[in-house]
Every structure is written in structure tokens, then in C-alpha cells.
Amino acid sequence: MLRAMNHQSIISQYLSQSFPSWSARNKRETFTVPVGWRKTLFDTGSLTAQLIAISDGDFSVQVLWQGWRKMSQQEALLLGCSGNEKIAWCRDVVLKVQGKPRVYARTCMPKSTLTGNECQLKHWGSKSIGTYLFTHPHMRRGKMSAYRIPNNDLSLSWARRSVFYLQQKPILVTEAFTQPLPTE
Predict the structure, then answer these.
(1) Of 17, 28, 154, 177, which is the most buried if we count CB atoms within 10 A?
(2) What's the pTM value of the predicted model, to 2 decimals?
(3) What domains can you pick out in the chain, each with its CATH number?
């Protein structure tokens, strides 16, 4: 059963619905990523682990919305979905450090991904998806892209996205940051 969503996704609201100037890590010549943001946007390690490391024990995940939803054109394209396959389990969360929002994240998982062990991700609750992804023995991460977010009321500055593959099953993760992570 599909649950209707009366408002736009937090992430989608601040990222253009048309194809924005996303920059693949190896194609940064399309625009300049400030030096202070490069490690945050293109680090291939676990964002969850990085946030926990700077949290002094106060890290949390707040689920803003989750359920079945029609993906945007660009989300469907990145996940290789077409036609009726454009429906996915989507999850919008805010990752907080010491009670303050640091990252707004959106995860999209096609029905075909939510089979086998991955079916539990529909009931992941207030746990970080990164915890699952970075402990999965067959996880592979696709190319990372970055996007400069226009001024907004959530103080989001930059976003990144990539498709993770768990035994060839895709999961799209988009993360929008309020500030860069510490470099040390």
C-alpha cells in the first residue's frame, strides 16, 4: 500500500528537481568545490562513524518521513528504474550531533533492493542506514557527486550523493550538510 506524502521531501525541496550541476569526483572542473568542503563531500568512509567521532557520545537520527513514494526523475535514473519501478521506499532523516542538525539525508531503495536481508531496512527506525551499509560484506559505492545548495532556511550549504550496491542491489543516498566536518 502506498502512503501519500502531502509535502515534498526535505532533501528534494532544496535540490533542484531538474538535473543540477552535480560534479563527479573526477570531473570537478565543472565548478569549484571550496577546499574546506572537499574532505566532507568526497570522503568515501562512513559519515555515521565520522559524526559519532565528533559527537562526544551525543549522536542521533531523527526520522522525518519514510514510506513508499514515487521517485524524482533523477533518482529513478540513478537507480536504473523505469515505468512502474519508479516507486521506492524513501526515508528522510536528520543526523544530529549534540542535538543540532548536521546532515539531512534521503535514502531511496527500489522494491527489488528490499529482498533478502535488505528487507529489514524498511523497519530500520532511528538507526543510521550507514551503519548497515558500511558493515555489509558485499557493499560497493558508486561515483560520488556534489552540489552547492542555494540559500535556504535549514542552513544547508552543500550536498553529496552516491549509489551504494549490496550484491548489485542499488540504494541511493543523498546527504545535505549544514557545515563541513572537522578535518582532523
Answers:
(1) 177
(2) 0.87
(3) 32-177 (3.40.1410.10)
